[in-house]
Prior knowledge:
By secondary structure, the protein is of the alpha/beta class.
Amino acid sequence: MATQEPDRGARRRWFRLPGQHPADSPEPTDFESEAQVTTEEAPEERVTPEPVPEAPVEAVATPPVAQPVVEAAPPVEVAPAPPEQPAPAEPEAAEEFDDSMRLPRVISIANQKGGVGKTTTAVNLGAALAEIGYRVLVVDLDPQGNATTGLGISHRNVEGSIYDVIMNDTPLDDCVEPTSVKNLFVCPATIDLAGAEIELVPAFSRELKLKRALQGARDDYDFTLIDCPPSLGLLTVNGLAASDDVLVPIQCEYYALEGLGQLLRNVALVKSNLNPELDVRGIVLTMYDARTRLAVQVEREVREHFGSKVYRTVVPRTVRISEAPSFGEPIIVFDATSRGAVAYRELAKEVSRGTTRRAG
């Protein structure tokens, strides 16, 4: 019997059953029976049908739609526009007017702490107010008399002083001295004023002595600035009782803040007992040195606590302001272009804002 030759073109099955280990797979034999041989079938040929051309669609003509006939409106006659007129000029903003700052005004410059710039402020603020046209009187209520000498008046050459006005009822006009600045006058102080604190103790209505003395000459000046002594004694009380406002200079250092609370309490006492119209007009920062962190901190604390009561103008610490009193001149005369002169001019504008000048 002839041996049947195996089909070499047939593929041998070589696969593993699911779960069967490779070692369990039987080794393939060179030839397998015809039953175990699977031949590949030829792939079937896929016939693509030819596309059938679509029949052309004939366009159907749409009959025209009749449009409605709109009659034209008759022309409207338009009147010619009038010639353009120039826009009216806007009125200038009126200067801000503070109704509580009517003239005449008496202002006390007070702080019981010494060396904070009370006298310097009284002299230079008065000169700056006089420079812009106000008639100003500086009343030197400090026994040291620094405001008097700072305006070029010698103690030995005066015939009457504020001591005579308070203690001897001398008319104020008899003691007023003119200065080198137009519209600026001073009622000088002498060493005799040092004894007035003791002499006023037994006096009748002692707290109102200065107020009564200023009544007769009040209308002669736009501003009367009272330079109070560095204390809270009877002279300072007289100055507060005679005033409409209080201006408080504060040196930009720690010690200047310590006594401020006590001064404000005394102002409140004078207001409740002697002068109901008294009010703190403003606080001015003096001797400001921007190079020190302390000055910046003091300014920030004062502005946070007192708000709008603090003037925007800050008086710097300059040598020229310190030199001016030795020549008997305010800073605006001694060095008109210095930083100190500019600062006091700006302060004068803030203090006098909205008021009407009465000086000729």
